[in-house]
Amino acid sequence: MTTDRLTELLEESSADVTAPAFAATAWATARRVRRRRQVLASVAAFAAVVAVTVPLRGRGGDDIVPAPPAPSASPSALTPGVDVMPPDPVQRALAPLPADFAVPADAPKLSGHPVQRAVAVVQENDPDSADRSMRPLHVLDTAGQWVRVDVGELVRTHDGGGNEADPLRGTSLSPDGRRVAVPQPEALVVIDLPAAKVHRIPVPGLNEQVMWSGNGIVFVGQGSAGVVRVDWAAGTVTPEPAAMSAWHGGGSAVALSEIAELAGAGAGHKVRVWLPGDAKLLREVPVDFGLVKPFGYGISEWDGPAVPDGAGRVAAAAWGDHAPPDGGPRNYGGVQMLTVVNSTTGTVERLLDLGADRWKSCCRVLDWIDGQTLLAQTEREGLITWNTRTGEITRITAGPFRGTVSVRLP
Fold first, then answer.
1. Closest Cα to residue 318, out of 376, 272, 370?
2. Model pTM?
3. For residue range 127-148, what is the model confidence (pLDDT) as tens digits?
């Protein structure tokens, strides 16, 4: 029998056989996997790469997920991103931060043990306790030693309505890790760690927020726009023409350089960039949600300072809603997120979905570890890192830390 005749017979015998619907079966299976894989499928679709992954089953019935391909060396080749907090992140050490992050009760006093450079300053609190007294500040030096701040007298801050808060802010530690700025009613307190002494500068108003501009200038304000400029070493206070907000702004490592902030709600989200000393905005651009909108995310409000990476991007916590692209139930106003925004174009370049079962203001950005990795604090995991290029998430502490943390890693 010739090859041509064999081909004809095979075609005749298969003419009445219906092709199996592999794609439909695969998509039906994919819809049943957990939410994280839904987001990853959306990412692949957005990149115009059609890929269907059917989960495999191990002997114990657990899904076996194939390892993802190695990330591209070029950031521009990465799929625009939405990442999802895993239920149990891998724990890894990040020296000199301790894994337990527990402040010892017998920590030595700063007055007898000056600190040349701190990597963190913390103020513990217990929201479940009826005790609202002022708790001490502790600093962690580069050797991993805790020291209790015993110089100066600090009180809790309060607004016009009498609502109190711990005075330590996530932006309190100076870029060089040598001083701690603490807002106080009618004053700014700067704790000089190497000298183990306090500078108290009178600043009119119920001050609640601080941010550093280099290591010599502190901008002090409340929750709204408007700050004053304090030269802590000279003890001088001058009006600041730029209508910045110390709540939305994250400061800058270089003195009197640009400071970006994220603000607005609804359709009015803006990136505002100020140059200290200038009353006119240096730049204002609308926030561009184009890269994350196909994944169904909407941001209702930014929460806390926009922490700069020194290369034109800022990171900030936010909350909003999520409408899954596959038509699943929408979470209205209850999804906690971390975001990375380009301060020149306004583009939301990456987003981390922390979940809908967290309380508002649960989480905050602390610092950039390097050009692509963020350090953040969450109420459940403690301190985490988020690689904004690969999406990798790790847990630094063994559990949550109840209190305010300000970090400046070397």
1. 376
2. 0.80
3. 676 777 889 999 999 999 999 9
